[in-house]
TrEMBL record:
It holds the Pfam family DDE_3. Gene3D superfamilies: Ribonuclease H-like superfamily/Ribonuclease H (3.30.420.10). Residues 91-228 form the Tc1-like transposase DDE domain. It comes from Spirosoma utsteinense. This is Transposase. Coiled coil: none annotated. Residues 16-65 form the Winged helix-turn helix domain.
């Protein structure tokens, strides 16, 4: 464990295999065979993975800032007379999956190549991942304010049993226009903007990541229409899992809600 403490004292958080081999040799006097070194590192509790990149422009306390935004939203809804137990909550985002992706690792005999469709076409898609309402996905013509305004009646219609809908989405300029915000309010939809450069704070990003992986596993995509149909189906399949937002709810939502409020948010995860 002395070696792990030594690593904790270093200015780096991540290390290459040669760096660790050198450090082990200098700290312990032992040189490990390259094939055995990963076993030693795992036994020491180290993980081998691809670190998630975080923008240098991201706010240091992004999670706490989002919690405060949500608190202000819930306080405002209560001040307007809304019962938070009758408010739907969801995450919205757009994505543009391409006809091919190369994110999945696959098994093969030998080192085989794959034939894929490299046409630069994209299936622009809008998705809504609901915590306590209805998930929703549809093709999106473009990322204009007009296109987003047209989505609100559909989202509201899916949540007719709720008094209002709270939507967390990103800071795309078209999202923040006066026309878009006014259209949302007309449909009792209240927009909360995520912190810049913090996509990990919006659980729907996990859905798009899963779809990209499935495109990679699929292989040859015949057409853009086929891609659109597959994206629709995969979205429904992936959003059926309650685990997508469970950690987000525990880390952020439950800290933002007033005490004893919106118990319905917990039902999908009980």
């Amino acid at each position: 464990m002395a070696f792990v403490e030594y690593l904790h004292a270093q200015p780096l958080a991540h290390f290459t295999r040669p760096q660790l081999a050198t450090a082990l040799r200098e700290q312990t006097g032992v040189t490990y065979h390259p094939h055995y070194l990963p076993v030693v590192l795992h036994e020491l509790g180290l993980r081998y993975y691809k670190p998630r990149p975080v923008s240098v422009r991201r706010a240091p306390q992004a999670k706490e800032a989002l919690i405060e935004r949500l608190k202000a939203t819930f306080d405002g809804l209560q001040a307007m007379g809304y019962d938070l137990d009758r408010v739907a909550f969801g995450f919205a985002d757009e994505s543009s999956p391409q006809l091919s992706a190369n994110t999945a690792r696959l098994w093969s005999i030998g080192k085989a190549e794959r034939v894929v469709n490299t046409d630069k076409q994209r299936a622009n898609t809008f998705g809504f991942l609901a915590l306590n309402g209805m998930d929703y996905c549809q093709p999106l013509a473009d990322s204009s304010a007009e296109s987003f305004r047209a989505l609100f009646p559909k989202i509201r219609a899916l949540h007719g049993d709720y008094e209002a809908v709270v939507v967390l989405w990103d800071n795309l300029p078209a999202h923040k226009t006066v026309a878009v915000e006014a259209a949302a309010r007309r449909h009792q939809i209240y927009l909360v903007y995520n912190l810049p450069y913090a996509p990990d704070l919006n659980p729907i990003e996990g859905v798009w990541k899963g779809i990209k992986r499935r495109i990679s596993e699929w292989g040859l995509m015949d057409s853009l229409d086929q891609l659109r149909n597959l994206v629709q189906g995969w979205f429904i399949e992936l959003t059926a899992s309650s685990s997508l937002a469970k950690q987000w709810m525990e880390d952020i939502l439950l800290r933002a809600l007033p005490p004893k409020s919106a118990i319905s948010f917990c039902k999908p995860f009980s």
